[in-house]
From TrEMBL:
Basic and acidic residues bias spans: 8-21
Chain residue ranges for the region called Disordered: 1-21
Protein name in the entry: Transposase
């Protein structure tokens, strides 16, 4: 049972880190969009997909 609980805790931590990275990438992309940076540059530095960048651009208009 302890191994199962440890595995669940590890998975939860990994999921939390992934969510945190996504939030940081999204925040960076939004800042860059507001600063009118080129889309290619935003994709390069945020590592978000072009589709996600365009979604964010629509949201902040």
């Amino acid at each position: 049972m302890c191994e199962l609980m440890q595995k669940l805790q590890d998975e939860g931590r990994a999921e939390g880190r992934a969510e945190g990275r996504l939030e940081e990438q999204t925040s960076l992309a939004i800042s860059m969009l507001r600063d009118k940076e080129p889309i290619d540059k935003i994709i390069k530095y945020s590592r978000l997909s072009p589709e996600r960048i365009h979604e964010l651009a629509e949201q902040i208009r």
